[in-house]
Design a protein that fits this description.
The chain has 192 residues and is α+β, with helices and mostly antiparallel strands. The chain has seven helices and four strands; from the N terminus they run βαβββαααααα. The radius of gyration is 16 Å and the shape is globular. This is Glutathione S-transferase.
């Protein structure tokens, strides 16, 4: 199995984490064609986009589906705008600080919601790490890299993220570097 996707893509991180959790052998190839949507090639077939690739490698529990789709449709668009404003426009003077401000505000609203959920349970999937936990952690790892999360405001998410971050499947993700941007000081620290 081969994953194609950009190092900028949190969904590629997710696919790598899931495959490592399932002990499936795979290779990764950098694909600059579409920064935000990875694809998988397996046995002569190509699966494009997160939902089709996830169907190939992982059966999402029915109780986990609402969270999985919420992360993709609601949470990720804010991150996507932050990524575009922070990195792609880093070298372009026409970027919009107002878009960045709105995106960060939306992201913080989502984090507040998840912070309250983690005050009652240890995992998004309730009974252990689920597809949604791994998907959300792949996005959080990106935000952590960019130092976009004020961890003092989100202690429950921090504890949850530390428990995911220490898993062997996360090692490779933490070794990635984005060209031109240094990771935050706590990025590689498991218990930060």
């Amino acid at each position: 199995m081969k994953i194609y996707g950009s190092v900028f893509c949190p969904f590629r991180r997710y696919l790598e984490i899931i495959l490592q959790e399932q002990k499936v052998e795979f290779t990764v190839s950098e694909s600059p064609e579409d920064v935000f949507f990875p694809y998988i090639k397996e046995n002569g077939k190509t699966y494009i986009g997160l939902l089709s690739t996830d169907e190939v490698i992982n059966k999402i529990d029915k109780n986990d589906k609402p969270w999985f789709f919420w992360i993709i449709t609601d949470f990720f668009p804010s991150l996507k705008l932050i990524i575009k404003q922070r990195f792609f426009n880093e070298f372009n003077t026409n970027h919009s600080s107002q878009i960045l401000e709105y995106s960060k505000r939306d992201m913080n609203d989502f984090l507040i919601k998840l912070e309250s959920i983690f005050s009652d349970q240890n995992w998004i999937g309730k009974y252990g790490p689920s597809s949604s936990d791994f998907l959300f952690s792949s996005i959080i790892s990106y935000l952590d890299y960019l130092n976009e999360i004020k961890w003092t405001k989100y202690e429950n998410i921090k504890i949850w993220y530390s428990s995911i971050k220490c898993r062997p499947s996360f090692d490779k993700v933490l070794s990635y570097r984005l060209p031109g941007i240094k990771p935050s000081p706590q990025y590689k620290i498991i218990d930060f």
